[in-house]
Structure formats: C-alpha cells, structure tokens
Amino acid sequence: SVAFVTAEYFDIFDYEFLQGTPQSLFNTANAAVLTKSQAESLFGSHLQAIGKSIMLNNQYEVLVSAIVADPPANTDLPFQLILNQELGGADRIWDSWGATSSSVQAFIKVRDNVDMVDFNQQIADFIQENISEDDPTKIRLLAQPLAEMHTDIRYGTFTGRLATDRETITLALVGILLLLAACINFVNLNTALASKRAKEI
User: Fold this and answer.
1) Could you give phi then psi for residue 183, rounded to 5 degrees?
2) Which residues, 6 or more positions from 132, have their beta carbon under 8 angstroms from its beta carbon?
3) Where does residue 103 fall: left (phi above 0), alpha (psi -120 to 50 degrees), or beta otherwise?
4) Each residue's pLDDT tens digit, 125-173
5) Which of 6, 105, 164, 201 makes the best surface tag, with the fewest CB within 10 Å?
6) Where are the chain's structural domains?
7) DSSP state of 64
8) Are strands 81-84 and 31-35 parallel, antiparallel or unpaired?
9) Is 88 helix (H, G, I), strand (E, B) or coil?
10) Whole-angstrom Cα distance, residue 20 to residue 43?
11) What DSSP string runs through 15-65?
12) Lowest mean pLDDT: which of 15-29, 40-54, 130-144?
C-alpha cells in the first residue's frame, strides 16, 4: 500500500531507515521511500534501489531516495511505498474539502493537558468557517486517540482490521476460562495419581 505524507509524518512515527534519511523524501516532489521487502521485490536487493525510478499509474515517475525496515505485522500503517504529498500538483485530491475518508488522515500530536472535547469543537468551528452553508459536502471531523485505531468501529483503518472492546473482552474471558479448565484438570489428575500411589503403598 501507498502513503502520501508531509515532513511531520516521520516526527510522529518512528521508522528504521536502512538507507537515506527522512529528509531525503522532501528534497524533491518525486522522491519515494520503499520498505526493504518492496525494494527487494522490485530491484532484487534493497542495496541497489537508491536512485532507481518507479513509474506510478503510467503517470508519475518517482525516484527511490530511502529504504526503511518492513513494518511489523500488527501495524496500522502497512505502507510499502511512502511518497511526498507534493507529488501530483493540481491532481492531488486532498487539496479539496471533498477528500474526506479513512484513506485521508491527519495525525496530530497534542499536549497532555489538551481538552479533547474543546479540541474537537475547534475542528468543527474551523470547518464551519471554511465551507459555505450551501456546500453540499457534509463534513464532520473528530480527533481519535491513536490507541483507539484498533478498536473504534466508527472509523476505517488502513488495514481494514478492527477489534471492538467487546471482542477483546470476550477473547480475554475465553482465555481465562481455558486457563481455569486447565488448572482444574491438572488438580484432578494429580489427585487421581496421588490416590493410585496411596493404594500401591
């Protein structure tokens, strides 16, 4: 999967850069960052990928400027190709207020003492100021804590994987019941073996 990002993305999320730097993505609009496995599938070796070009949709040619380690399997950010948001110029859909979906997200670091109810109201006020009342686009944006990306079913994710709090609790209870059953079986087995030994004596 592909992500278009701004320079702040690498300030928020940690990536292990095997070659190149985060800044190398923003030196030119057509720069690209590949994961190690994606670079190996395209070029045979991630060590040979820097400076090579990739054609996207037969429209944009990008140059590999950095290689990052593959993300873990449980990531919510499963990107194999990371591109500069400036790529595409006037064709960029996110320059439009209509570009709202789970595929267009903004990640914001807030201070610990920020009141999230007030913060969400500021977002709503900002939208109200920038969209005319007769605009047919109905936009509602809310801040979502990063920790809730796995469990909040009101929003989509980049992976499509969600586990509600109820599902998590249910799985935990099943695990506890299985552990309890194993303990009871262990005690019963030891009791039976002890009785057998007592008879033998």
Assistant:
1) -65, -45
2) none
3) alpha
4) 888 887 766 665 677 778 888 877 777 766 666 666 667 778 888 889 9
5) 201
6) 2-91
7) E
8) antiparallel
9) coil
10) 17
11) --EEES-GGGGGSSTTEEEEEHHHHHHHHS-GGG-TT-EEEETTTEEEEEE
12) 130-144
Show the tokens assigned to 159: 């992976």
Provide the token pair at 71: 């993300």
DSSP result, 120-136: HHHHHHHHHHHS-TT-S
Pairing of strands 31-35, 60-68: parallel
Q: What is the DSSP letter of 145?
A: -
The C-alpha atoms of residue 120 and residue 104 are separated, in whole angstroms, by 18
Q: Report how far residue 20's alpha carbon sits from residue 37's, in angstroms, rounded to the nearest whole number.
A: 16
How far apart CA 121 and CA 141 sit, in angstroms, is: 10
d(CA 184, CA 180): 6
